[in-house]
Specification:
D-Amino Acid Oxidase, Chain A, domain 2; FAD/NAD(P)-binding domain; 441 residues; 3 domains; 19 strands; 8-stranded mixed sheet; alpha+beta; 9-stranded mixed sheet
Length: 441
Amino acid sequence: MEDKFDCIIVGGGIAGLSTAMTLARGGAKFLLIERGEFCGSKNVSGGVLWGSDLARLVPNYWEEEEGGWERFVSHRRLTFMDEQSAFSLDFKSGHFAEPPYSGVTVLRARFDNWLAGKVEEAIAESAHPDESFLAQNILVEEVLMEDGRVVGIRAGEEKFFADSVILAEGINNLLTRQVGLQSDYVPADYVAVGVKEVIQFDRSVLEDRFQLSGLGGLSNEFVGFASGGVEGGGFLYTNRESVSIGLVLGMKDLREKKHTPYDLLNAFKAHPAVADTLRGGEVLEYSAHVVSTGDIRGMPRELYGDGVLLAGEAANLLLNAGKAIQGMDYAMRSGLLAAETVLAAKQKGDFSAATLKRYRDALEESFVLQDMRNFQGAVHLLHSPQMFGAVPNLVCDFGRQFFTVDSEPSKKSSQMFRESVKRHSSYWDLIKLGFKASRSL
């Protein structure tokens, strides 16, 4: 093994693997270190990978019968819930079935392992097939520094040196704090607890129940009762033979209200609008982990330094502005941009902060930081108490009146709406909320 690499990548998730793939194709010598037994073994999360960057990394990935993805998203749904009711906005379109798909559901253990295999293939075809490595089941304990510059890493008694180090360690910012890019743990205000179950079905049952055709799939987000009065919301995504269902709950609000994520998830699953869809399924997996809320104030003070870059959730790159929960696509794009920055620095022979600043500039020019900045108002709006309380209750109250037919004179819909507003909010509050939404979205 060479004494020195062009780059060491810490973390074998989507950000780290995207970096590695790009470096291999760019002719760099690198070492990727993953603490899990294999890439994806420690990453139990799943969901939707949005955007087109997967096709950039793995051209024609949709043609692989045993590809790492589950289903392409052909059906989008947003559901407002109160204790007994659900009111959904539903959208389905044939254009979603045209590859490269705009979104694919993934199970991360399978997807990351598959993508790692693609990286191995890229290494074998690279200029340095014997000098680049994926090293798994290794824990990085320390980032090595000399005169304020990152020069490598230490794992146990072994030290590895490189011109640059990319930290893709996830929300756990131990190494990020070591290099001085973040002073403390990310505050509870800016992180959430994600809880999820994977529930298995016979494939034909799954496709009939959710009206799926071929490899088309459903992405369903939930607002209101789903989170049990805690800041946050719910989700359900269809995989090939299972569904991923769960909640994302604000950590600070969860602590203050003294709820447990598992109890809230069980209540969500028992809701009439959800319970019927899960009937007969077998729980394969339960997991919980910390995620970013997408609040830009939770980002590290900087994303680069002398010899070091931050990618993916290590940089707190995530956005939920109401349209979709975007995190994996941000990790993938940041990994691509980090690798391109390292390749440019290698060509220049300069890995100083002044050169690596190009990474921050590239992120600012990309959809990642442009959307995070432009939609911060929407992030704050979605985490306001009205959005998981008054608004879904009002919507469901109106829906219950509007769709109920009995042997009494029917009210005008305008009267129904006025009565719902009176029970759950006020016109003044709705006007203020509408004004915020118009500016945020």
